[in-house]
């Protein structure tokens, strides 16, 4: 839980510190950034998948020695939606863990030259039946919250209940959490870090710079 958002899980896995140190370091070259970011996002994706009550059911299995009461995840009850472009990196990790999962894409871009301008929606392709699934919204960065809010609007517009959306995120900050929490408190957030805040260019501090540029080596 956090003072900035009513419905948030902040990961505390010990393995994150080393991985975050690598991806935050501005001298980490693109191939290494991708390598460490994928390891980090795989942990995030696993923890997000573990938090999908509508797609999870109790089950009993038998070990060679005894009964075990567990849980299983039904991939058919899940849809993973990325906010293109950076969100595609996290989507890749979710898909690796949930082969065959239904996928949607929403292209939303900020105008980096005018930080105050609202993020713009360019494209939205969502699968039929998404309104009956639990939606993992994938975007590694939550800064002002403008992009995530637009993506959530697009999901609501096709009938997805807000309570079925879980936002999976690598780094967020108080500004974005307060903005999203005010608009959509029912959308649960699973994040790997709450950073200090935003700078004048609306980049997260300390953050890691432009996630999409670094992950896809668009520099
Ligand atoms: C980045 C990031 C988020 C958004 C977060 O995307 O991936 O989608 O900014 O910022 P916000 O919370 O202030 O909206 P960007 O628009 O830079 O596009 P990219 O994914 O192509 O890098
Ligand atoms: N998008 C990024 O990639 N990084 C930030 O710090 C903010 C938005
Ligand atoms: Mg984006």
UniProtKB/TrEMBL annotation:
GO terms for molecular function: GTP binding; uracil phosphoribosyltransferase activity. Its cofactor is Mg(2+). GO terms for biological process: pyrimidine-containing compound salvage. Residues 11-218 form the Phosphoribosyltransferase domain. Belongs to the UPRTase family. Pfam families: UPRTase. The keyword Repeat does not apply. Pathway: Pyrimidine metabolism; UMP biosynthesis via salvage pathway; UMP from uracil: step 1/1. SUPFAM superfamilies: PRTase-like. Its EC number is 2.4.2.9. It is an enzyme of class 2 (transferase). This is uracil phosphoribosyltransferase. CDD domains: PRTases_typeI. Gene3D superfamilies: 3.40.50.2020. InterPro entries: PRTase-like (IPR029057), PRTase_dom (IPR000836). It comes from the Eukaryota. The keyword Glycosyltransferase applies. Keywords: Allosteric enzyme, Glycosyltransferase, GTP-binding, Nucleotide-binding, Transferase.
């Amino acid at each position: 839980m956090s003072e900035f958002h009513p419905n948030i899980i902040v990961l505390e896995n010990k393995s994150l510190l080393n991985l975050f140190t690598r991806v935050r370091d501005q001298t980490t070259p693109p191939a290494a950034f991708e390598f460490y970011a994928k390891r980090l996002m795989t942990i995030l994706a696993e923890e997000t998948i573990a938090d999908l009550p509508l797609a999870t059911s109790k089950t009993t299995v038998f070990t060679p020695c005894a009964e075990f009461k567990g849980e299983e995840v039904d991939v058919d009850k899940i849809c993973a939606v990325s906010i293109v472009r950076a969100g595609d990196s996290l989507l890749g990790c979710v898909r690796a863990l949930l082969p065959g999962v239904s996928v949607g894409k929403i292209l939303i871009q900020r105008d980096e030259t005018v930080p105050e301008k609202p993020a713009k929606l360019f494209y939205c392709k969502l699968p039929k039946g998404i309104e009956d699934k639990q939606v993992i919204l994938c975007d590694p960065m939550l800064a002002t919250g403008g992009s995530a809010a637009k993506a959530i609007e697009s999901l609501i517009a096709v009938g997805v209940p807000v309570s079925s959306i879980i936002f999976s995120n690598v780094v967020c900050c108080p500004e974005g959490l307060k903005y999203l929490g005010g608009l959509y408190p029912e959308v649960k957030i699973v994040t790997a870090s709450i950073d200090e805040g935003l700078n004048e260019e609306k980049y997260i501090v300390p953050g890691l710079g432009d996630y999409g540029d670094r992950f896809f080596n668009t520099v």
